[in-house]
Amino acid sequence: MIKKLKDERIIKETNKISSPLYLLILILTVTVAVTKYIFFTQELSNYILEIAAITVSMGYLISNSLINGIPIFSSDDECINELQNKYRARSFEICFYTYVFGEFIALLVPGQALGITALYILIWIVPSAIFTVKAVKRGLLIWGGENRKKKTIVDFKKRVILGSLFYGTFMRWEYLWEQGKFQPMEILKILGAAAMWGIPFYFTMKLIISNGEKKSNKELEE
């Protein structure tokens, strides 16, 4: 029963945090797109991620709202507000993962301008930082109990490894193909950069999540 209450609380609070971040990520998308248009390029192919993120996320939000008869903007009903938060949170996730994975793929494309690709970091890192801070304050970053802790830690390690490799690749990609030739030694530098970011991040977040677990348990006991 306690676990069920904890899961429901986490889902509701997570959606409540993510919901307004959808508007933020849309504003950042427009800001980056305008910046790219003015200072970098007007070629339509360089705006695929922005078009995909906005079209798919808004399509999801509008279609689910219409199908379920939920107002898109505002409501005084608490149950409707929860559904609105849920749909907006999913739309935020669509945008977020579109930019994270899209940016990683873009880095692997030969000839892709690093400066243009780097702009996407601003779109997803700002809302993710806000989400992390709020989630920590509300005790939402937890392992999910002792029974799920081992599996959750393994999944967390996998995500950190992927994120670290993304960071290392981003930092050293332009040197990997320096002067048109593949530089195998740069692979070691990519791994080094990944380790420098990933190891401190892993242990810091592990400590934060463990403290969040304790806070969450205290709130349920009260």
Automatic annotation (TrEMBL):
Segments traversing the membrane: 21-39, 51-73, 94-111, 117-136, 187-209
Keywords assigned by UniProt, alphabetized: Membrane, Transmembrane, Transmembrane helix
The keyword DNA damage belongs to this UniProt entry's keyword annotation: no
Keyword Transmembrane: yes
InterPro entries recorded: DUF6773
Listed name of the protein: DUF3159 domain-containing protein
Record organism: Clostridium mobile
